[in-house]
Write a structure and sequence with these properties.
Length: 434
C-alpha cells in the first residue's frame, strides 16, 4: 500500500498524451466521471478523481497509469492538461510540505517511490486514494477480466510511439465483404521488413493517418485489432493484418468521413504507413494445450477472433487444440467479413453460429439469441476451467451477451454471479468493445 500522504500533497492522476491513442476506454470506465476530453487530449479532473483505479486495467496502452506528487494548490487543472503535447517534468516537493502537515519528508519520499507501483497494485489495492479523498470510493465492476489467462504468452507493448513510429509497407489490401453491400470492409496486410514488431493474438496497433485536424495539429493514432496470428499473416513472415471498415456515417446515420478508415481502405500495394504500439496486455488467448475458446463478435470485431482461429488452425495436427465455438453477427451473409474462408473451415475444428439480423426471408437473430439456442454446448464449455470467452464488437452487445450467459448458467442451477466473478478473476472472460 502507499504510505499516507500529507494533507496538502496530492498524488495527481495524469494521462500521457504521447502514448494515449484516444480510444475513450478510460472515460467510459471512470465511475465518477473524472475523465473528459477535447479534440487534443484526454484529461483527469483533480477535483473529482478519487483514485479508485477502475480506469487503469482496461487502458490498452498504459497511458492512463501516470501519477505525480503535487502540492494540492499547484495541481494541474483540466485546462492545463488540455494544452499538453507531453507530460511536464516532475516537480520536487518542498521539504516543508510534509513537516507542516504533521508528517515528515520521509513519508513523501516513500509515497514517491511507490508511485510507479500504482498500476500493478491497483487490482490488489483498489482503495488507494489521492490526498485527503475519502476511502469510500464508489464500487465499480468491469464486465470482463482485467488480467490475461494464466497461460497467455508475454505481450510486448508500446515499442513504438507517436514520437518514434514504425514504418510498415502495405503488401495487400482486399475487400472482404460483398461489392454490392454498403459495408465496405478491407483486409489490409502490413509488412515490417527486418525491424522487430512482435505481436500476439488479441493485441492491437495504432495507425497515424497523415495530415492535420481542424486545429492544425497532426492526427492522433487510431486503434485497430490484429486479424493475424503471432507468426504473421503469412506464417514465418514479419507481417500482420487488420480488418478495417470504411466509415462514411456516424452511429446516428448522418454522413461522416472516418479519417483513418478511409485512408487505410484506399491504400495501394507498396504504400507506407506509420504504426505505433503494439498495445494490449489482457485480451490474450490462453497458451496451454486443450484450451477452449468461445468467441462472440460482430462486424470488424471479428479481427481478433480470426487471429485466434488461425493460430489454432495452424497447429491443428499437433493435438494441442481445445474446442472452438464462434458466434458471429452481421446484417447479411454478404456483409459478414471473411464469410467465404470461414465456411471452408472443417466443422469438427470450429463450431460456427451465424446471427444474421437482416437476411431476406429469415427472422432477425442476434448473437445472444444463438447463445441461448446453443445453451447446452455453451454451458458445458462455461463449466470447463480450460475455457476462455472473448467478446468483440459494438459496446451495446455487452449487456445482451452477459444476459444470455447468465440465463444459460441459471438453467443448470448454477449461480451466474459466482461464475462471472470466477471468470473475471481467472482472466477467462474478456470484452473489447467500442
Amino acid at each position: 500500500m502507499n504510505a499516507p500522504l500529507p494533507v496538502e500533497v496530492l498524488k495527481q492522476h495524469l494521462i500521457d498524451p504521447e502514448i494515449c491513442i484516444r480510444c475513450n476506454t478510460c472515460e467510459e470506465t471512470c465511475p465518477v466521471d473524472a475523465i473528459t476530453h477535447d479534440s487534443n487530449n484526454y484529461v483527469v479532473d483533480p477535483d473529482i478523481c478519487n483514485g479508485c483505479m477502475a480506469c487503469v486495467p482496461p487502458c490498452p496502452t498504459g497511458s492512463i497509469d501516470n501519477w505525480r506528487l503535487m502540492l494540492r494548490n499547484e495541481a494541474y487543472s483540466v485546462q492545463d492538461q488540455f494544452g499538453w503535447e507531453e507530460l511536464p517534468k516532475e516537480k520536487a516537493l518542498p521539504e516543508t510540505a510534509a513537516v507542516d502537515a504533521g508528517g515528515d519528508a520521509a513519508a513523501a519520499d516513500a509515497a514517491a517511490v511507490d508511485t510507479a507501483a500504482v498500476g500493478t497494485a491497483a487490482a490488489d489495492a483498489p482503495g488507494v486514494m489521492t490526498g485527503a479523498a475519502s476511502a469510500a470510493a464508489p464500487a465499480f465492476s468491469l464486465p470482463g477480466a482485467s488480467v490475461p489467462p494464466w497461460s497467455a504468452a508475454h505481450p510486448y507493448v508500446n515499442l513504438y510511439t507517436h514520437k518514434a513510429p514504425m514504418t510498415a509497407t502495405v503488401v495487400g489490401n482486399y475487400r472482404v465483404t460483398g461489392a454490392d453491400t454498403e459495408s465496405d470492409i478491407h483486409h489490409i496486410v502490413l509488412d515490417f521488413g527486418e525491424l522487430p514488431f512482435p505481436v500476439l493474438e488479441g493485441q492491437s496497433i495504432g495507425i497515424l493517418p497523415p495530415g492535420v485536424d481542424a486545429q492544425g495539429r497532426p492526427h492522433h493514432a487510431r486503434q485497430y485489432s490484429l486479424a493475424s496470428p503471432r507468426d504473421g499473416e503469412r506464417a514465418g513472415y514479419n507481417n500482420l493484418s487488420l480488418t478495417v471498415k470504411r466509415v462514411t456515417e456516424d452511429h446516428g446515420g448522418a454522413a461522416a468521413h472516418g479519417v483513418c478508415s478511409n485512408y487505410l481502405c484506399d491504400l495501394a500495394k507498396n504504400d507506407t504507413v506509420q504504426v505505433i504500439g503494439p498495445f494490449g496486455h489482457t485480451f490474450l488467448m490462453p497458451n496451454h494445450p486443450r484450451a477452449n475458446l468461445i468467441m462472440i463478435c460482430t462486424g470488424t470485431g471479428s479481427a481478433p477472433m480470426r487471429a485466434m482461429t488461425e493460430r489454432y488452425r495452424r497447429r491443428i495436427d499437433t493435438g494441442d487444440n481445445g474446442r472452438l465455438m464462434l458466434f458471429f453477427g452481421a446484417r447479411t451473409e454478404r456483409e459478414l467479413p471473411y464469410f467465404g474462408p470461414l465456411m471452408k473451415l472443417p466443422r469438427d475444428f470450429i463450431d460456427i453460429n451465424l446471427a444474421l439480423s437482416r437476411e431476406p426471408g429469415q427472422p432477425k437473430r442476434y448473437v445472444q439469441d444463438l447463445i441461448r439456442e446453443r445453451a447446452g454446448q455453451v454451458r458445458e464449455l462455461l463449466l470447463d476451467r480450460n475455457t476462455c470467452i472473448y467478446v468483440c464488437g459494438l459496446k451495446g452487445m455487452e449487456v445482451g451477451v452477459l444476459d444470455a450467459l447468465r440465463e444459460v448458467t441459471m438453467q443448470s442451477g448454477q449461480d451466474w454471479s459466482i461464475l462471472h466473478d470466477v471468470l473475471r478473476r481467472e482472466g477467462r472472460l474478456h470484452f473489447e468493445t467500442y
